[in-house]
């Protein structure tokens, strides 16, 4: 009596191949090999693309175009799936169901799948056939993201970087309560667009939210003239204390990163000279002002206007989850996405945030005054 070496099935008329495998197991084995071809091609399409220093945008786009070509190869491979009647069974074997849920995933190809009372839904095969087009759309989004990353970096490269010259100085601590007299200026349809276009954006990264206890770890200021970013002042700061892990996760700044950086007190004079008597712009500006003022930057020494893009955005864009809403929230990253200002991979670093806040201010002014 013949016996399959794989499933153990027995029968007088059971046909086995040269490997001692019945036809059912042979079909499964062939289909599993087919699935592994899909996985191998998927891995070539989705291997990580990194933004390496020195690589050109043209090279990156060419690399991504190569991924699109492989997506078309995957289409051709998948179009032969009807030759593999055991494909659903193989996909079911690889599918991982979320606990207490009808949803799951085939992790080898990161394909989102559905389950019903009978197991993996039959529609998974048609979902798989649609997968290359979805990957092509994802690559298109990646190309747009890299273009935006290069454009944003080019803006930074074209600005003048003001040298940071630390000057040993005694720490100055102002009372944050003094800032209560600051009034934030709004933008209306009658605002003078040209006058608005010259200002300095400030942004800080800190070890926490409390300006009395937390420390500065990075500070940047970007000077805009006639709506064009002209120069910037940016430096990491030695907080003279340990940086919490959650801050490192958010900003990428750790204790080693700030090693050898100037203390804030040593760059106060340089930063004050850079800001001068210009109007000041920031996103959730009160947060930045509190930290800077508390640590010795006396904004009140000059008469100036203060513009908070967080407050202004609330007068320009509608927040909510409906189709009539503009944005889901007023975070800087969300607003940058809305106006296509930058790729948010560089968010939570003060120079990137300061520059994007200035560009956001321009977009909001355009909508408020020029629309």
UniProtKB/TrEMBL annotation:
CC per GO annotation: cytosol
Residue span, Exonuclease domain: 198-370
Pfam families: RNase_T
GO molecular function: 3'-5' exonuclease activity; DNA binding; DNA-directed DNA polymerase activity
Keyword tags: Exonuclease, Hydrolase, Nuclease
GO BP, sorted A to Z: DNA replication proofreading
Domain of life: Bacteria
Protein name according to UniProt: 3'-5' exonuclease
Taxonomic source organism: Mediterraneibacter gnavus
Lineage of the species this protein comes from: Bacteria, Bacillati, Bacillota, Clostridia, Lachnospirales
């Amino acid at each position: 009596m013949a016996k399959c070496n794989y499933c153990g099935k027995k029968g007088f008329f059971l046909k086995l191949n040269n490997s001692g495998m019945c036809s059912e197991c042979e079909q499964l084995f062939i289909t599993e090999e087919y699935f592994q071809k899909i996985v191998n091609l998927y891995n070539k399409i989705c291997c990580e693309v990194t933004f390496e220093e020195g690589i050109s945008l043209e090279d990156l786009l060419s690399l991504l175009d190569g991924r699109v070509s492989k997506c078309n190869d995957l289409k051709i491979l998948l179009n032969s799936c009807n030759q593999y009647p055991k494909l659903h069974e193989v996909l079911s074997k690889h599918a991982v169901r979320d606990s207490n849920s009808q949803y799951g995933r085939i992790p080898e190809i990161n394909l989102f799948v559905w389950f019903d009372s009978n197991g993996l839904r039959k529609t998974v095969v048609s979902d798989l056939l649609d997968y290359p087009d979805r990957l092509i759309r994802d690559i298109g989004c990646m190309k747009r993201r890299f273009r935006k990353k290069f454009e944003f970096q080019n803006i930074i490269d074209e600005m003048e970087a003001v040298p940071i010259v630390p000057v040993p100085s005694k720490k100055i601590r102002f009372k944050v309560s003094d800032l209560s007299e600051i009034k934030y200026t709004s933008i209306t349809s009658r605002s003078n667009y040209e006058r608005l276009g010259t200002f300095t954006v400030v942004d800080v990264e800190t070890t926490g939210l409390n300006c009395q206890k937390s420390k500065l770890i990075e500070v940047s200021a970007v000077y805009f003239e006639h709506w064009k970013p002209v120069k910037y002042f940016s430096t990491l700061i030695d907080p003279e204390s340990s940086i919490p892990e959650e801050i490192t996760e958010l900003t990428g700044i750790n204790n080693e990163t700030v090693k050898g950086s100037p203390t804030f007190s040593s760059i106060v004079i340089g930063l004050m000279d850079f800001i001068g008597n210009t109007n000041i712009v920031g996103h959730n500006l009160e947060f930045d002002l509190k930290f800077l003022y508390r640590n010795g930057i006396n904004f009140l020494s000059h008469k100036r206007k203060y513009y908070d893009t967080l407050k202004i955005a609330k007068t320009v864009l509608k927040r909510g989850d409906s189709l009539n809403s503009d944005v889901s929230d007023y975070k800087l990253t969300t607003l940058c996405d809305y106006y296509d200002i930058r790729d948010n991979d560089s968010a939570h670093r003060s120079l990137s945030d300061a520059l994007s806040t200035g560009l956001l201010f321009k977009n909001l002014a355009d909508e408020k005054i020029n629309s």
